[in-house]
Design brief:
alpha+beta; two-stranded antiparallel sheet; globular
Length: 159
């Protein structure tokens, strides 16, 4: 819904992500999921309602998301997205790097290295992009990684 895709994530009415050319609106309040971050507000609301001193929470959500993109070799109007967040004391980028590396190793079923590159995203600070070592050539260079040994994988940020 518009509530969880935009309102609870503090995206104002004039935010570009709400534009008709970017989002599939079914009616004024109902949209196809544009990202998996909509689970963040749902889970934080649930955490706030719990009567506990332990306010630690780790959530991974995944699923199909929909955007008004023209389909081509690198874009699709529908794709899978993985989103995660952690709330707790003493959480750092080191924790993020560990969980990303662990996830990639489990996904590819082999030892994978990752690197975090500083990047800019207008909605978060600090932000990084993540590359994974090429699973095909073990980082020696091949057609999949374009002879670099690395595959661009994902974007991450700390807000």
């Amino acid at each position: 819904s518009d509530l969880y895709n935009f309102q609870k994530l503090n995206l104002p009415l004039d935010h570009p992500a709400r534009d008709m050319q970017d989002t599939f609106y079914l009616d004024n309040n109902l949209v196809l999921r544009t990202h998996c971050t909509n689970m963040t507000s749902r889970m934080l609301t649930k955490l706030a309602s719990l009567k506990t001193d332990d306010n630690n929470l780790a959530v991974i959500s995944y699923g199909n998301v929909y955007r008004r993109d023209d389909d081509d070799a690198t874009h699709s109007h529908q794709f899978m997205q993985i989103d995660g967040f952690v709330v707790g004391n003493k959480i750092s980028f080191a924790n993020l790097k560990w969980i990303l590396k662990y996830m990639c190793q489990r996904l590819f079923n082999k030892d994978i290295n990752i690197r975090l590159r500083p990047s800019y995203f207008p909605f978060t600070e600090p932000s990084v992009e993540v590359d994974v070592s090429c699973f095909k050539c073990d980082s020696k260079g091949c057609f999949i990684c374009k002879k670099t040994g690395w595959i661009w994988n994902t974007r991450c940020w700390n807000d």
